[in-house]
Specification:
By secondary structure, the chain is mostly helical. The chain has 15 helices and 4 strands. Helix 3 packs parallel to helix 5, helix 6 packs antiparallel against helix 8 and helix 13 packs antiparallel against helix 14.
């Protein structure tokens, strides 16, 4: 007790005990955060290992495996078609027309499905590696990483010139950039595995070079600028992706830009005073789009928060912040029967699932009820619409 006795005279009695209480509180908080992580791991362990077992048997499939007949690009170019665009009954061979919220099942989605599969593979393998430390998962991941980013015969070009095309209208659109949210879990997976000796430096350098090129395209090409300036979930997802890829490539300038854009553009332009997201509520799928955009905002906070600049605690001058957004939507995630707005025209029955906004928010604010809601939610959705709009499917690789 010599240290304590020598320390006490320098503080008043009340200040001394206040200091002790603060220290105890900090320790308790850290234990509580660790408890949350332990529960997350226990919730996901069985599913992760099962999915990783499947991933160990899979061979690489990249965009070069599927020829897109309507694409204006080449074999290595990602191509997709706008979901809500359909043949015109009055002119079946002419330009497509829009039916907002209604997905045309005949549109080309093979490249998107291949990218989702890639994301699932790396997410599962990296999660299993984080659980077990077994390098076999890393070795299998390397095969897929090389196929997408390194091998000349199969790798994808680092741009989205031909995404979300519309027959007779556009060969590609900036709106298509949202398709590469799938690559975020690839990046997070690489980061989770990067200390393994089973990850060759050539693969790591090749992936970083690919994403550096893609980032340059995202911030300089008119499609990228259009998507950045989108005022709904597309603008949020541009920031989310750029933040993720910039961290991976150590681009501090873009990291700082994304932080500032979240604070000064995303929150003020998209969140109402009650925490709702009016631009999403106006859509034909207000529930799903509100969930999706909130997930993206929360993922930005998870990616970019530091001890010096914690976005979880950031609020605008008029009180807008991510906690207000999660607090608004949470009651409808816990019980969607309470949803006071119109139901989505498609996929209403499939939402919600284990939403990252609820999990990340639970950990940031030590919200036990939020964590419990996340734990009992669906962690392995099968609906393709839900999967492609779920930016975080492997939470273990998103935690430090």
């Amino acid at each position: 007790m010599k240290f304590v006795s020598s320390f006490v005279p320098k503080l008043s009695f009340s200040r001394f005990y206040l200091t002790i209480l603060i220290a105890v509180g900090l320790v308790c908080s850290s234990f509580k955060a660790d408890d949350f992580k332990d529960e997350l791991t226990a919730t996901l362990r069985q599913q992760v290992l099962k999915e990783a077992s499947w991933a160990m048997q899979q061979k690489p499939i990249t965009v070069t495996a599927f020829r897109a007949e309507r694409s204006s690009g080449g074999l290595h170019d990602f191509y997709s078609e706008g979901d809500y665009w359909w043949p015109n009954p009055e002119n079946p061979n002419g330009p497509y027309i829009q039916k907002d919220g209604l997905t045309n099942p005949q549109n080309f989605v093979a490249h998107r499905q291949a990218m989702i599969r890639f994301s699932q593979l790396i997410g599962a393998l990296a999660s299993a590696y984080r659980l077990t430390g077994d390098d076999k998962y890393v070795k299998q991941a390397v095969v897929h990483l090389n196929a997408w980013f390194v091998d000349e015969a199969t790798k994808m070009n680092p741009n989205l010139l031909y995404a979300q095309a519309i027959k007779g209208v556009a060969t590609g659109r900036g709106i298509g950039i949202i398709d590469t949210i799938q690559l975020m879990e690839v990046v997070q997976g690489i980061l989770a595995m990067q200390k393994s000796k089973a990850l060759p430096q050539q693969t790591l350098k090749g992936a970083k070079s690919w994403f550096a090129q893609y980032l340059d395209w995202l911030v300089t090409h008119p499609y990228g600028k259009d998507e950045m300036n989108a005022k709904n979930n597309h603008g949020t997802c541009w920031v989310m992706q750029v933040a993720c890829f910039a961290k991976f490539t150590h681009n501090q300038q873009l990291i700082d830009f994304c932080k500032e854009r979240y604070k000064t553009v995303i929150l003020p332009q998209q969140m109402a005073s009650d925490g709702s997201l009016p631009l999403e509520l106006k859509r034909t799928k207000p529930y799903g789009y509100s969930i999706f955009n909130l997930d993206a905002m929360a993922t930005i906070c998870q990616l970019l928060s530091t001890s010096q600049d914690n976005l979880w605690n950031y609020e605008t001058s008029d009180g807008l912040g991510i906690k207000k957004g999660i607090s608004f939507l949470y009651p409808f995630l816990a019980n969607k029967d309470k949803w006071p707005y119109p139901k989505d025209v498609m996929h209403w029955e499939s939402w919600p699932v284990a939403q990252p906004s609820v999990l990340f928010g639970a950990m940031a604010y030590q919200q036990r009820d939020w964590l419990n809601t996340w734990k009992v939610a669906e962690h392995n959705p099968k609906n393709e619409e839900i999967i492609r709009n779920l930016p975080v499917r492997h939470p273990l690789i998103w935690l430090d």
